[in-house]
Amino acid sequence: MRSWRRVVHVWCDGGADGCSRAPYAGVMSEWERLRRLIVDLAVVRGRVTLSSGREADYYVDLRRVTLHSEAAPLVGSVLLDLVEGGGLAPGSVGGLTMGADPVAAAMLHAAAARGRVLDACVVRKEAKAHGLQRRVEGPGVAGRRVVAVEDTSTTGGSVMTAVGALREAGADVVGVAVILDRATGAREVVEAAGLPYLSAFTKDDLGL
Question: Structurally, how many domains does the chain consist of?
Fold first, then answer.
């Protein structure tokens, strides 16, 4: 059974993917506005080598979206609806710096605008050698439900690195949420680790 949450951009069909993404219907939704901004601002055509070492015929530079004045608030709202629609109910969100940082910050602000409490955290690639020598920065995550976020994931390696660091810090990692799933194996890696994998968009949504 399909049910709509908030505007029209998050829905649950009861399938294996849960509330992973949503179609556009009726008045332009935040999901559709964000989709168009991603296509206009972030999609770069041409042969590129990804951080995973794989080659592709296009590149989606989502920092052009997550750091954009109009698009960033939409990222926060759409991703917040995504994790809430998936029933994850996190107390904090965050992931491996730096792709995850503006995503988590946008979700924090979107939650605050709705009168909800949601913290953000930053996962360093390695612990600091000075100061408090923390790898996970921000309000403490120990004993809290945390969703690991990322702008996009190719192999799942980066987000699973974040999951490992968050667990070492005592977090109860309850899922992974990304803006874009490239359909290149990340979902399978995350789900094989026993975690829900939610994506706001797939490459098909962007015409890729």
Answer: 1
